[in-house]
User: Which sequence fits this backbone?
């Protein structure tokens, strides 16, 4: 079965190609085929997992050679799959959550005329993401890496008749490409210093790298990870990416694609282990982004953008854990898996809420929706409790481990990283509770379409309703995961034991604070965050239009001026440069050519006067020419 | 089979067909189908020839044929193909039928009275394209410096007429600019050709590349000769700062002519660098490599930045090509075997992506009536198939993995890192700029809301998506992009041995 | 008589011919000048031939004569047709070569 692992990728890829090639002819059944392909991919993946579970732990790293891909002399790259616990964890997450989101999309996209194209893109994404995690070399990983970028571009811009959405899609792709540039340069340096870009080759030789080279490669890989995982300083695209249909936000911009950066860092363990500085920078980026994302999430009134900030922040936790080195890898992946479930659940819940509210994303026009959307409320509540880390929900197990690990180490680092993780937990509790209360509790800030209130009522007219079963069922499954997965995956050796063949065995040293103290502090801070949110958004009336707010709130609403910085540093100078060059190209570079041509024409115009049409003057000129030529020959004696 | 003089057949068949089509008035009415058939037969011949090619000896000239031509000056008709030559001949001959099909209506239909004149113009067009096909085979197969030079210059004639007779309003001045630019480069090369012969052994085969390789012993003379050849190829390629003829020409030419011009003819420049500059003047090439790498880097970044600011689709595509030619030249001169293999593959991949972009832009302009980018918007809803194919071609052009463009660009970049990290790092900037310039244009042309009259025309059926002829002219191109992106192995096997022979080890 | 004498005579004849061409407006006279120049060259050629003892110069002289004869035929025909068309044989009149 392991030899057939390529089917995991091939099935959704074939389905996607088929749907795109057949075009409108497959409109009627396209969504069913795509969903079936995702489920089939999950089933194949599951069979592979079962077989790997049957192997002894040391043998669980399987390299499956497929074909010789780029045989270019000194650099020969094979296409092959790395089937090991780490990649299989991702395969399970991608195909399972992916299948659920396919099912959900059947309902969500019912009324869209281009539903078949949407499903083709979703399948394309799943295939590309699976290539990314199953690749056995950085080169093939890059194929998946850019492939998910393309799928993300297509899906963010799915409704690209709205120019803003098309711009958001382009922004995501270009910022991702900045990160990809890091990955390309990293691969170039690997080839220059190690002569290979395969995982096994790099892992075997990485210990021989000089520290500056290892640090450079590590930092460049981190740049790639930052682009894909929306970490500082390449985080600005994620909020705009919410322009895509909500299932896309759930699958790509919450559960799977944005976690690829974490995967890359864990996968490149051999490089990062040789480069402590790069590791430290990684942890710093993670810690900073987890606070930045949380702050952004607090300031947003758009439910999807708030969730996007939350995703940024949660991935910050994972990057922080991955930056702590082998002690953090397993927890980073653990949190990644649980986050995949509850965040997808939250997004799909948000999608249901939007669906019920005429596609409005403004939380200030929600309120009191619990009564009309009971199932959505219940699943959202479960996922809310999971993300803020209330025991025994999944987030508690995974996030708490990261907070504990962040407190491990010497000097200033455990205090800074641990402190950031703790504060982040409190802020997470606040903004998630804010979102939950604003949406489902309090007084309704909308009026029913059927009500007889006067037209001067400022509240929007809505007709909220529960979503159909095809949409609620996947959310319920995700919610079940959000409840149980933390507990299930930490049974016995749990996910740490499963990942050990990849992450290596590590002893967990004691944190600088006793574990119970950290645990208590976390829970107290979470409770405080929830209480604060309840006081402000549960008990009080939420105004329909946002109050001016403190400078911090205003900054958070504008993503801490990330767009303004990008504009000032990159876009405007770039535009000026482009305009100058376009002008210079015609005026200077081409001007030199046209100038030479004009000079020739002008001299011709002068010399033309000699051609006066009188035969005798021509004869005189000929004679003079002969005389001069003869004289020159005579004098120079050539 | 292999005993047949394949290359000569491939040169002769389209040339004879071109002459017949041009000279026999009775055939003018059927010029287009006859031309298409001839080009397909020629392509079939090329494929048959390729089966007789031994990939394990791809670094050497195969299928060779040598006949004395002008023995008194040492010129001979010497043809043969190595791996790169074979790939380029196949690309050229594959693009010819595609271009003929795509430019089916390059001469618009006329009223009954003008039928005869229209047919004659159409026959002229087809004959010129076929003549060009013959010359392209000859230039890639030439093993004699004199023969190469003659074909290199003669090729200008059909292109001059293709641009000057069939194209936009300013086609005449564009054609003249192209001709004068190319002639200027070519004349400098002629000086080099003559001087090189005088340095060589002379005799009736004194112009054979094999007899001239490395014969120049004096470094100063070698450098002058190298520069003379390189300037001609740099104009052709086109490299910054001698690139300005390309945007003007493509802006006026028909999409098919632009495809052949940029997709194949410009490759003669980089092909000449590989086939003449490196083997003839290895020492001087090593001496000049750093300067050329700098020029290549400028081309990459400059082309991409100027492309962002373009208003005309054809000029935009031309500037992206200048950026891409920068990558090719970088790969040739950076001094890494892997990068050189990548550069050669890039020549093929760029030929495909450029064909897709030019032809689709042409189809779009036929529908929208303008080549200006800002005349469009929201056309994805109007012509979804066209938009999708444009996206695929563009993604191949900006090196999305899984498509052909990636293999070349990846090998050039990764290989460059082994030779010069700063140069490679600058070139990587091109990757980001490429995404930006292409997506900007895609956004401006295809996303947003279509204008009301366009949407109305679409609803009335007056405006249609790609028809069968247009689709099938692009299917082979897109299929090749995907296949070469996933399975580049067979082509790389043809190119790698050559790179091992030619790569400049000493440029580090 | 030494070679020099022949050459000087040839030079004098050539100069007379050249001045005739430049100074006279009448096409027929200009034509005569051209003939005179050609024949001065012939004289020089034959003289060289005699001095060197080879026939090359004489062959060249015959060549020039043949060409000159052909030229006279064509040239006179042109002059006659110009005269018929314009009623003049002045070389300054038909300055139509201009533009």
Assistant:
């Amino acid at each position: 079965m392991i030899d057939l692992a390529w089917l995991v990728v091939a099935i959704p890829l074939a389905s996607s190609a088929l749907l795109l090639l057949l075009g409108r002819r497959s409109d009627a059944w396209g969504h069913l085929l795509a969903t079936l392909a995702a489920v089939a991919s999950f089933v194949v993946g599951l069979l592979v997992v079962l077989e790997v579970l049957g192997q002894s732990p040391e043998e669980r790293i399987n390299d499956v050679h497929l074909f010789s891909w780029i045989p270019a002399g000194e650099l020969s790259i094979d296409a092959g799959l790395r089937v090991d616990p780490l990649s299989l964890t991702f395969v399970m997450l991608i195909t399972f959550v992916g299948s659920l989101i396919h099912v959900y999309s059947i309902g969500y996209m019912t009324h869209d005329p281009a539903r078949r194209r949407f499903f083709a893109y979703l399948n394309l994404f799943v295939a590309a993401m699976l290539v990314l995690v199953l690749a056995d070399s950085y080169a093939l990983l890059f194929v998946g890496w850019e492939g998910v970028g393309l799928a993300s571009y297509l899906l963010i811009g799915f409704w690209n008749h709205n120019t803003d959405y098309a711009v958001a899609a382009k922004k995501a792709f270009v910022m991702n490409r900045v990160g990809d540039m890091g990955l390309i340069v990293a691969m170039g340096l690997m080839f220059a210093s190690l002569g290979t870009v395969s995982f096994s080759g790099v892992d075997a030789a990485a210990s021989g790298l000089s520290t500056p080279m290892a640090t450079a490669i590590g930092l460049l890989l981190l740049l790639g990870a930052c682009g894909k995982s929306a970490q500082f300083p390449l985080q600005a695209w994620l909020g705009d990416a919410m322009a895509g249909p909500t299932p896309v936000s759930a699958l790509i911009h919450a559960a799977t694609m944005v976690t690829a950066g974490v995967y890359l860092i864990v996968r490149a363990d051999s490089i990062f282990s040789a480069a402590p500085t790069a590791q430290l920078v990684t942890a710093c980026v993670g810690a900073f982004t987890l606070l930045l994302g949380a702050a952004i999430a607090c300031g947003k009134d758009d439910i999807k953008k708030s969730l996007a900030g939350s995703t940024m922040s949660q991935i910050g936790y994972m990057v922080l854990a991955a930056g702590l080195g082998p002690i953090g890898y397993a927890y980073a992946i653990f949190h990644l898996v649980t986050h995949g479930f509850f965040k997808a659940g939250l997004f799909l819940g948000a999608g249901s809420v939007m669906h019920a509210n005429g596609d409005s994303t403004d939380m200030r026009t929600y309120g009191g929706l619990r009564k009309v959307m009971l199932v959505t409320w219940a699943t959202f509540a479960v996922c809310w409790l999971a993300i803020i880390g209330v025991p025994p929900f999944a987030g508690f197990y995974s996030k708490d481990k990261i907070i504990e690990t962040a407190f491990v180490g010497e000097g200033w680092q455990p205090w800074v990283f641990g402190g950031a993780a703790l504060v982040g937990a409190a802020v997470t509790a606040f903004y998630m509770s804010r979102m939950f209360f604003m949406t489902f509790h309090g007084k309704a800030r909308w009026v029913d379409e059927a009500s007889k209130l006067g037209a001067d009522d400022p509240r929007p007219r809505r007709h909220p309703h529960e979503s159909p079963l095809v949409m609620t069922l996947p959310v319920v499954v995700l919610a079940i995961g959000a409840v149980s997965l933390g507990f299930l995956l930490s049974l016995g050796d749990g996910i740490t034991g499963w990942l050990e063949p990849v992450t290596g065995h590590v002893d967990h040293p004691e944190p600088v604070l006793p574990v119970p103290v950290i645990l208590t502090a976390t829970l107290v801070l979470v409770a405080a965050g929830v209480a604060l949110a309840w006081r402000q958004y549960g008990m009080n009336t939420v105004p329909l239009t946002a109050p001016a707010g403190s400078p911090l709130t205003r900054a958070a609403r504008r993503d801490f001026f990330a767009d303004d910085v990008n504009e000032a540093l990159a876009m405007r100078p770039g535009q000026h440069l482009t305009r100058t060059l376009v002008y210079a190209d015609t005026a200077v570079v081409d001007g030199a050519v046209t100038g030479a041509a004009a000079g020739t024409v002008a001299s011709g115009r002068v010399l033309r006067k000699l051609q006066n049409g009188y035969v005798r003057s021509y004869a005189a000129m000929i004679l003079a020419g002969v005389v001069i030529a003869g004289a020159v020959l005579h004098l120079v004696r050539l | 089979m292999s005993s047949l003089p394949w290359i000569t057949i491939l040169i002769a068949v389209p040339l004879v067909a071109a002459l017949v089509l041009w000279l026999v008035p009775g055939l003018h009415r059927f010029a287009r189908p006859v031309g298409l058939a001839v080009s397909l037969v020629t392509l079939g011949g090329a494929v048959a020839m390729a089966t007789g090619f031994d990939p394990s000896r791809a670094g050497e000239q195969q299928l060779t044929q040598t006949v004395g031509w002008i023995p008194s000056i040492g010129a001979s008709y010497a043809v043969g193909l190595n791996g790169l030559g074979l790939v380029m001949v196949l690309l050229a001959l594959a693009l010819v039928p595609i271009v003929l099909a795509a430019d089916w209506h390059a001469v618009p239909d006329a009223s009954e009275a003008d039928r005869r004149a229209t047919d004659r113009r159409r026959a002229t067009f087809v004959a010129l394209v076929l003549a060009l096909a013959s010359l392209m085979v000859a230039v890639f197969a030439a093993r004699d410096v004199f023969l190469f030079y003659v074909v290199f210059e003669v090729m200008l004639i059909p292109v001059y007429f293709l641009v000057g007779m069939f194209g936009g309003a300013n086609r005449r001045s564009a054609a003249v600019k192209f001709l004068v630019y190319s002639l200027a480069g070519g004349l400098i090369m002629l000086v080099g050709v003559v001087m090189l012969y005088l340095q060589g052994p002379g005799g009736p085969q004194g112009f054979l590349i094999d007899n001239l390789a490395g014969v120049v012993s004096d470094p100063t003379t070698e450098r002058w000769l190298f520069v003379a050849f390189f300037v001609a190829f740099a104009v052709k390629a086109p490299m910054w700062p001698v690139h300005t003829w390309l945007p003007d020409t493509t802006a006026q030419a028909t999409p098919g002519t632009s495809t052949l011009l940029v997709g194949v003819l410009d490759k003669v420049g980089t092909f000449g660098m590989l086939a003449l500059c490196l083997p003839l003047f290895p020492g001087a090439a090593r001496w000049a490599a750093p300067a050329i790498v700098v020029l290549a880097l400028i081309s990459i970044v400059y082309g991409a930045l100027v492309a962002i600011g373009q208003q005309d689709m054809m000029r935009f595509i031309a500037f992206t090509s200048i950026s891409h030619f920068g990558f090719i030249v970088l790969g040739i001169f950076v001094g890494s075997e892997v990068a050189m293999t990548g550069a050669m593959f890039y020549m093929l991949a760029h030929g495909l992506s450029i064909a897709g972009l030019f032809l689709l832009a042409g189809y779009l302009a036929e529908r929208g009536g303008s080549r200006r980018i800002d005349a469009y918007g929201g056309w994805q809803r109007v012509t979804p198939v066209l938009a999708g194919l444009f996206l695929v071609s563009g993604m191949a052009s900006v090196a999305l993995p899984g498509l052909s463009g990636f293999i070349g660009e990846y090998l050039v970049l990764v290989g460059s890192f082994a030779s010069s990290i700063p140069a490679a790092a600058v070139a990587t900037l091109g990757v980001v700029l490429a995404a930006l310039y292409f997506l900007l244009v895609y956004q401006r042309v295809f996303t947003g809301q279509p204008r009301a009259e366009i949407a109305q025309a679409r609803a009335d059926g007056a405006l249609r998506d790609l028809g069968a002829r247009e689709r099938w002219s692009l299917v082979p191109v897109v299929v090749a992009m995907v296949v070469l992106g996933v399975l580049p192995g067979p082509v790389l096997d043809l190119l790698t041995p050559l790179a091992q022979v030619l790569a400049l080890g000493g440029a580090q | 008589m030494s070679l020099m004498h022949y050459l000087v005579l040839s030079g004098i004849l050539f100069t007379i011919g050249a001045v005739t061409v430049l100074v006279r407006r009448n096409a027929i006279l200009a034509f005569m000048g051209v003939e005179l120049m050609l024949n001065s060259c012939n004289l020089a050629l034959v003289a060289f031939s005699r001095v060197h003892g080879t026939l090359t110069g004489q062959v060249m002289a015959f060549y020039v004569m043949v060409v000159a004869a052909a030229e006279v035929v064509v040239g006179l025909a042109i002059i006659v047709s110009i005269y018929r068309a314009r009623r003049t044989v002045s070389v300054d009149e038909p300055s139509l070569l201009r533009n």
Remarks:
- Chains B and C do not touch (no CB pair under 8 Å).
